[in-house]
């Protein structure tokens, strides 16, 4: 379970909309608490709601026969869940698992479809985020294939920090292994190396980032590529 200690923040995608456009969406948005372990989408099943996380974190997982689920992306306050609906697809290609408990704003797929068809600003922001998510997915795929576990773990911790806006969270080694697609012993070794360098502290699942700059140096370039793309897209 990932529990971050921070104050709630607004969803960046919604915040980028003109005030009038956002006010129109409010009538169909409902605040909802997302809890750790909750599955929002399953592969091949209809998407019934879209979600705009505010201080929650959702992992996007792909499944392969005979293997554990592998994380291919994560969604937090910067984006939304339900992108396929904007592309004319009603079923989810991934499993969406709540990794960090918190709040989100939820809208039915029918209301989202109607609002999306009528609002050019919403279309613009959703398409912009779709591109950001594509960059994250492709970069994560390359990272999982080519980079060492230690660098991948550093990247993952930094991406999580940015989305929950906290340097402290609770995360078990088993869960980290699932996110990175490695065995627990690999996570133990990688976390131990980062802890020995005094970049993080890690005790019974409680993780604290002690040196953000040092952790960025330890991470592969994938972290900065995704971060830069987000900043350029929002400029």
Summarize the entry for a quick read.
With 235 residues, the chain is an alpha+beta fold. 47% of the residues lie in helices and 21% in strands.
Fraction of residues in β-strands? 15-25%
Distance between the termini: 33 Å
Poorly predicted runs are 3-9
In sequence order, what are the helices and strands, one letter per element?
Answer: HHEEEEEHEEHHHEHHEEHH
**Content-based structural category:** alpha+beta
Mean pLDDT: 89
Number of strands: 10
Helicity range = 40-55%
* Apparent shape: globular
The strands making up the biggest β-sheet line up spatially as 2-6-4-5
Structural account:
- Helix content is 47%, strand content 21%.
- Strand 4 and strand 5 (70-75) form a beta hairpin.
- It has 235 residues and is of the alpha+beta class.
Secondary structure topology:
Layout: H1 12-15, H2 19-26, E1 30-34, E2 39-41, E3 49-53, E4 57-62, E5 70-75, H3 83-86, E6 95-100, E7 102-108, H4 109-118, H5 120-146, H6 149-164, E8 168-170, H7 173-180, H8 184-196, E9 200-203, E10 206-209, H9 212-218, H10 221-234
Antiparallel strand pairs: 1-7, 2-6, 3-7, 4-5, 4-6, 8-10, 9-10
């Amino acid at each position: 379970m990932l529990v971050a200690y921070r104050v709630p923040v607004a969803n960046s995608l919604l915040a980028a909309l003109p005030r009038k456009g956002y006010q129109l969406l409010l009538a169909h948005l409902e605040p909802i608490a997302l809890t750790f372990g909750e599955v929002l989408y399953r592969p091949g099943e209809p998407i019934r709601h879209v979600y705009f996380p505010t201080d929650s974190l959702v992992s996007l997982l792909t499944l392969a026969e005979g293997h554990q689920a592998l994380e291919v992306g994560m969604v937090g306050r910067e984006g939304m869940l339900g992108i396929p609906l904007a592309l004319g697809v009603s079923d989810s290609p991934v499993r969406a698992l709540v990794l960090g408990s918190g709040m989100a704003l939820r809208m039915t797929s029918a209301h989202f479809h109607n609002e999306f068809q009528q609002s050019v600003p919403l279309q613009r922001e959703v398409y912009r985020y779709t591109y950001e998510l594509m960059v994250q997915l492709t970069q994560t795929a390359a990272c999982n294939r080519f980079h060492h576990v230690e660098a991948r773990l550093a990247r993952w911790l930094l991406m999580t920090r940015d989305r929950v806006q906290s340097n402290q969270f609770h995360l078990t080694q088993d869960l980290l292994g699932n996110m990175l697609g490695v065995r627990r012993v690999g996570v133990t070794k990688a976390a131990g190396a980062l802890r020995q360098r005094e970049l993080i502290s890690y005790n019974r699942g409680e993780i604290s980032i002690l040196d953000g700059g040092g952790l960025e140096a330890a991470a592969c370039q994938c972290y900065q590529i995704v971060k830069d793309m987000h900043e350029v897209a929002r400029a």
